[in-house]
Amino acid sequence: xxxxxxxxxxxxxxxxxxxxxxxxxxxxxxxxxxxxxxxxxxxxxxxxxxxxxxxxxxxxxxxxxxxxxxxxxxxxxxxxxxxxxxxxxxxxxxxxxxxxxxxxxxxxxxxxxxxxxxxxxxxxxxxxxxxxxxxxxxxxxxxxxxxxxxxxx
Length: 153
Prior knowledge:
The protein is mainly α. The chain contains eight helices and no strands.
C-alpha cells in the first residue's frame, strides 16, 4: 500500500481505520501558513478602508475561533462537512498552533520563505519585508485591545 499525506481532520478517520501516523507536520519544524490574506499593493493604495474592514473582520474571526470552541465547532461542521467528533479533534489539534494575533514571527517568516524558495527557485529571492506586512494587523489588534473587544461567546 502506498503512503500518502493526510491533513487534519481526515487524519483522525485514517487513524481510526487502523493506519498509524509516521510524521505530523504540526509537530515538526515544517512551516505551513494557511488562512493568509493576500492582496495586490494597488488595492491597498486604492481602497484602504475596504482592506482595513476585511482585515478587522478576519482578526475578529480569528479571536472568536481561538476563544470559543463551542461556537467554532458548528462553523467547522458547515465549512468542512465533517462529523462533530472529527471537528472537535481537528479544533483541539490546530488550536495550539494558531497564531494569537494574525501574524507570525520574523523567524517563522524566514523559515516559510526559505521553504518556498527551495521549491520555487526564483531568479531573484524576495525579502521577508516584501512578502509579509503586518502593519495593519498590528494597528487593528491595538485598537481592538484598547476597546476591550471580546468575541461574542
